[in-house]
């Protein structure tokens, strides 16, 4: 019977170990030991999941539903500490787990027998608990039995942020080492089945190669890197004749299947070589150009023959957002009958202007994002479509390793098959709704096409991109995307194979760390937000560095929602100002960046304004202080703020 203290002790050791190799060896050793002690149990899998910082496997839809507020309350209850003491401990560490360790340190550290199975049982009960009180009771039960070090890591695990400098990829490597399997095989199984715990079992049972793609868990999204000018994009994609020989070699190496270095090689000119001879001086740009849509990125799963009506839509945060888009669910459930098996699409959900035949501004779609109940009024006011630009799974085959050129061909064929049926009515007849709320409408004259294929074509020149950019802007889209024609799909990577060109002033994606009450009509409302970017130590300590404060740009309704959320997620109440859980991401625009010691990042923004709330973007992907430095350096006059009034 594996004990949670082994997870806690290992985690504590890993937090203090900088060497990746040593970390991997220690995790591998621990997994092997747990497995050997009970080869038939799920303990080794649970152990791997805990070290990766996830209470449940990714494919498992269950959620603990335990946020900072609930966990803080439980901690106060069990430790008997005062709110003042908790606030002080939290301020010292910036981490609830570490604060919990301090508050419980007077507790008898005796010999805990809390097992991994018992923790799993409590987590399972939390996921189905109907009330907060029941959930809090379960957390208290765990914390009461835990030693201080166990409590520290239980809290971190429940928050979902271990801060021990261990990513899932390192645990995958450790599983491979522990079971003498290949890393590529472990990674592949995890990608297909999204179950780290099950991959441990497979690795020891030697059945990794039997892993099969399961639909209905999100794969990572491939992301784009920014370029400032069409010229820069062309330079990146251009094929130079002199590298032709190298390119052939590179291509061969790639087919051997080691995917660890694919971030750079798929985007490099070597990887975009075509067989045709290139005349000296001729510019060959093997890249597709598409509009950059300003909607919500989404991955859509459908067509599983065993559950033909099931459709799932995942956001970039990997959240299941299907409920918010019932018209897409209906349309793709209908279209599944025309599909020839499971499909995974990558695309953008857009609000659609039916009259003009183009996307509605993001702000209009934004009003619908996050809504769980979508009334007919919303359906009619903001009709949505799914603008598809990539195909990840089809014909029983994962297409990630096919070049974009080939994926695009297959996408076009699939869309042609489905487009006629992927329809749903603008509004539904409420009386005909099925109990689950889904209505499978027959396509008829009133229904609208919900599946659209993003136009895509090979680009020819800088001027061609310039023109396309202007056309895209004229269609009210954000800019253009350029994608290497031979590039593979890299889930979760921001490589150089996809480039985005949007030439506005730079914006930053930041997370709100604090909020202040407003004045006048905003008195009593938390309307002024202090926000941060990721610091250099973010990976290991979760370091966030404040960079500015803004209060303009949002609608009253958005501010009201944020304010209520901030009240609920307050970490420290300093009267007019509150520090809040760093979870809400904003995109902010500004006129320029100054060096300043007003904020911990060493920078301040001049005339900051909030462009939008970006709940679609996880905190792990917000901008970094290096990016701030980069924008700062790119300014012609690099302003320095002379006044020095430190705020954090
Ligand atoms: P950003 O959010 O600034 O990192 O930009 C990347 C985003 O561009 C993605 O998450 C997509 O939502 C969006 N996007 C819009 N159009 C496309 C497209 N044609 N291909 C890929 N991504 C796109």
SSE diagram, text form:
Elements: H1 4-15, H2 20-37, H3 43-51, H4 68-79, H5 83-93, H6 96-103, H7 116-128, H8 132-145, H9 148-159, H10 168-179, H11 183-193, H12 196-205, E1 223-227, H13 230-237, E2 238-239, H14 244-255, H15 262-265, E3 284-285, E4 287-292, E5 296-302, E6 312-315, H16 326-335, E7 343-353, E8 358-359, H17 362-366, H18 376-381, E9 384-394, E10 397-398, H19 404-418, E11 423-425, E12 447-449, E13 451-453, E14 457-458, H20 462-474, E15 479-484, E16 494-501, E17 507-517, E18 526-534, H21 538-541, E19 544-550, H22 556-568, E20 570-573, E21 577-580, E22 585-589, E23 592-595, E24 603-606, E25 609-613, H23 625-634
Parallel strand pairs: 1-16, 9-13
Antiparallel strand pairs: 2-3, 4-14, 4-15, 5-6, 5-7, 7-8, 7-9, 9-10, 11-12, 15-16, 17-18, 17-21, 17-22, 18-19, 20-21, 22-25, 23-24
Helix pairs in contact: 1-9, 2-3, 2-10, 3-12, 4-8, 5-6, 6-9, 7-8, 10-11, 10-12, 11-12, 13-20
Bound molecules: adenosine monophosphate.
Adenosine monophosphate binds at residues 223-224, 290, 292-293, 297, 316, 348, 389, 454, 481, 500.
Keywords: ATP-binding, Cell cycle, Cell division, DNA damage, DNA recombination, DNA repair, DNA replication, Ligase, Nucleotide-binding
Protein name: DNA ligase
Domain ATP-dependent DNA ligase family profile: 377-535
Any overview of this molecule?
It catalyses: ATP + (deoxyribonucleotide)n-3'-hydroxyl + 5'-phospho-(deoxyribonucleotide)m = (deoxyribonucleotide)n+m + AMP + diphosphate. With 648 residues, this protein is of the alpha+beta class. It has three domains: 4-210, DNA ligase i, domain 1, CATH 1.10.3260; 294-453, D-amino Acid Aminotransferase, Chain A, domain 1, CATH 3.30.470.30; 508-634, OB fold (Dihydrolipoamide Acetyltransferase, E2P). Helix content is 37%, strand content 20%. The protein has 23 helices and 25 strands. The strands form six sheets. Strands 5, 6, 7, 8, 9, 10 and 13 form a seven-stranded mixed sheet that branches. Strands 17, 18, 19, 20, 21, 22 and 25 form a seven-stranded antiparallel sheet that branches. A five-stranded mixed sheet has the order 1-16-15-4-14. A hairpin with a 4-residue loop joins β7 and β8. α10 (168-179) packs across α11 (183-193) and α11 crosses α12. The structure holds adenosine monophosphate. Adenosine monophosphate is lined by residues 223-224, 290, 292-293, 297, 316, 348, 389, 454, 481, 500.
């Amino acid at each position: 019977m594996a004990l949670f203290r082994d997870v806690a002790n290992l985690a504590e050791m890993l937090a203090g170990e900088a060497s990746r190799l040593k970390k991997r060896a220690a995790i591998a050793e621990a997994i092997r030991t747990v497995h050997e002690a009970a080869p038939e149990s799920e303990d080794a899998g649970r152990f791997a999941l805990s070290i990766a910082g996830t209470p449940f496997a990714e494919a498992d839809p269950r959620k603990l539903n335990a946020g900072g507020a609930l966990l803080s309350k439980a901690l106060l209850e069990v430790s008997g500490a005062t709110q003042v003491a908790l606030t002080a401990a939290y301020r010292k560490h910036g981490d609830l787990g570490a604060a919990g360790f301090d508050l419980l340190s007077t507790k008898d550290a005796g010999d805990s027998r809390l097992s991994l199975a018992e923790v799993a049982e409590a987590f399972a009960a939390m996921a189905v608990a109907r009330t907060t009180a029941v959930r809090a009771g379960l957390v208290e039960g765990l914390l009461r039995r835990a030693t201080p070090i166990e409590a520290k890591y239980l809290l971190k695990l429940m928050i979902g942020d271990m801060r021990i400098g261990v990513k899932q990829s390192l645990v995958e490597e450790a599983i491979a080492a522990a079971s003498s399997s290949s890393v590529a095989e472990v990674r592949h199984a995890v990608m297909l089945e999204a179950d780290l715990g099950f991959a441990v079992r497979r690795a020891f049972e030697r059945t990794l190669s039997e892993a099969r793609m399961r639909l209905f868990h999100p794969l990572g999204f491939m992301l784009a890197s920014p370029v400032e000018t069409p010229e820069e994009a062309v330079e990146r994609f251009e094929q130079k004749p002199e590298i032709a020989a190298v390119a052939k070699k590179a291509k061969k190496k790639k087919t051997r299947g080691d995917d660890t270095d694919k971030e750079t090689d798929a985007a490099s000119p070597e990887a975009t070589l075509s067989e045709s001879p290139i005349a000296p001086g001729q510019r060959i740009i093997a890249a597709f150009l598409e509009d950059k849509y300003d909607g919500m990125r989404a991955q859509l799963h459908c067509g599983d023959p065993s559950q033909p009506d099931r459709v799932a839509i995942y956001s970039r945060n990997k959240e299941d957002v299907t409920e918010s888009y019932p018209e897409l669910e209906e349309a793709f459930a209908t279209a599944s009958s025309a599909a020839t098996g499971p499909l995974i699409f990558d695309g953008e959900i857009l609000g659609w202007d039916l009259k003009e035949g183009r996307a509605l501004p993001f702000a209009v779609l934004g009003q619908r994002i996050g809504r769980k109940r979508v009334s007919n009024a919303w359906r009619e006011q903001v009709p949505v479509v799914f603008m598809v630009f990539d195909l990840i799974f089809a014909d029983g085959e994962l297409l990630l390793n096919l070049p974009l050129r080939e994926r695009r061909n297959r996408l076009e064929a699939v869309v042609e098959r489905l487009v006629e049926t992927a329809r749903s009515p603008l509004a539904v007849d409420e009386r005909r709704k099925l109990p689950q709320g889904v209505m499978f409408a027959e396509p008829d004259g009133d229904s609208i096409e919900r599946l659209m294929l993003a136009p895509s074509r090979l680009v020819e020149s800088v001027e061609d991109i310039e023109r396309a950019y202007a056309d895209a802007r004229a269609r009210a889209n954000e800019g253009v995307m350029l994608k290497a024609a031979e590039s593979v799909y890299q889930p979760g990577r921001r490589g150089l194979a996809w480039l985005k060109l949007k030439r506005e002033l730079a914006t930053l994606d930041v997370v709100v760390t604090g909020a202040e009450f407003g004045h006048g009509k905003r008195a009593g409302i938390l309307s002024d937000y202090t926000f941060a970017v990721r610091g250099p130590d973010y990976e290991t300590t979760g370091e966030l560095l404040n960079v500015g404060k803004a209060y303009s740009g949002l609608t009253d309704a958005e501010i009201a929602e944020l304010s209520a959320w901030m009240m609920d997620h307050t970490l420290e109440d300093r009267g007019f100002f509150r520090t809040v859980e760093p979870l809400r991401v904003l995109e902010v625009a500004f006129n320029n960046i100054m060096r300043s010691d007003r904020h911990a990042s060493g920078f301040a923004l001049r005339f900051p304004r909030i462009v939008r709330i970006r709940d679609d973007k996880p905190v792990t992907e917000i901008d970094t202080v290096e990016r701030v430095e980069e924008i700062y350096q790119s300014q012609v006059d690099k302003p320095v703020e002379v006044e020095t009034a430190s705020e954090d």
